[in-house]
Amino acid sequence: MKQAITTAAGNGDGTRLMTTAGDIFQQASAILNSTDANGNYIYGGGQGNSQPFTATSLSDLASGSVSSFFQNGSSKKSVMVGDGESVQIGVLASDIGTQLMTALQNLANADAPPAA
Prior knowledge:
By secondary structure, the chain is mostly helical.
């Protein structure tokens, strides 16, 4: 995303910027909603059976608070490695996606025409 914005600014041409932003949004959404072999959402935390990121388009993202689109649980997955010993292995969708989705939301809002 940073490279796309830098290129657009450097060339004085942002005509492809929103297309690139949309592509990045779709790729990031797919990653945030990835499932394991059992169909559980990898980044869902304690909500492994619910889609952790719910915005379906860049325009959806622009319409609300970024945090409202993250529906992952707050507990990260862990595994037992010994007697009473567990290691946290999970990552939450909100931990890895909030900054990128905030940047995409800011870009989408900056591109939106002013309200009449």
